[in-house]
Amino acid sequence: MKAKKPTVISAVAVILFLTGCRPVNQRQVTMTNTPERNDANMFQKKDASFESPLDAPLKNTVSGEHMKAFLVAYDAFRQDQLIPEEKRRIENYRIEFRETQAVYYILFFAKRDVTERELDGGESKLGKDVMYTITKGDYQLKARTFYA
C-alpha cells in the first residue's frame, strides 16, 4: 500500500496538536475593533499566565522520524473505508508510537464512552482500535491491523 506524501502544513498542524502548544514566536492576541487606532490597545494578551510559551509546562515531545511515520499512518487512517467516517475524528483517539529496528508502529486507541470503561480493545462508540506499520527509511505503509 502506498500512502500519499503529507504536506509540511499538515505536519506542523499535527505537531502543534500533539504537543498542545503554539509556535514559539506566536502569541495569542485579541484585536480590538475601535474607530480610532490606538497602538497601545491594539493587541491584548488573552493568556497572561506565561511570559513566553517556553515557560509553560512541557507536555510531550515527538521526534521528526516519529512524526513523519505518524503522518503516513494518519493519512491512511483518514482514508480508511473500514473505519466509519464518524469514527475517524482524531480527537477521539490516544496515539502510541512503538518501533523495532525495521518499522514504526503507530497505534490509534479509541477513547471510551463512560458506559464502555470495561471494554477491552476493538471498537467503541467513538472509534476503532487500529495499528499501522510503517517501514523505516522509506516511510511506506506496510500493514494495517484492527483489534477485536
Description:
By secondary structure, the chain is an alpha+beta fold. The protein folds into two domains: 21-55, no CATH class; 61-146, no CATH class. The chain is built from three helices and six strands. It has helices spanning 8-19, 39-42, 64-79; strands at 29-31, 43-45, 93-99, 103-110, 130-135, 141-146. The strands form two sheets. It has a four-stranded antiparallel β-sheet with strand order 3-4-5-6, covered by helices on one side. Strands 1-2 form a two-stranded antiparallel sheet. A hairpin with a 5-residue loop joins β5 (130-135) and β6 (141-146). It is globular and about 45 Å long. 13% of the residues are buried. Mean pLDDT is 78; it is low at 21-35 and 39-44.
Order of strands in the sheet with most strands: 3-4-5-6
Low-confidence stretches: 21-35, 39-44
Largest sheet: 4 strands, antiparallel
Q: On the 0-100 scale, what is the average pLDDT?
A: 78
SSE sequence, one letter per element = HEHEHEEEE
Number of helical stretches of at least 4 residues: 3
Task: Please report the total strand number as a whole number.
Answer: 6
How widely separated are the two ends?
22 Å
Helix/strand/pairing category: alpha+beta
**Total domain modules:** 2
Shape: globular
Please give the radius of gyration in angstroms: 20 Å
Task: Assign a percent range to the helix content.
Answer: 10-25%
Estimated share of beta-strand residues: 15-25%
Oligomer: single chain
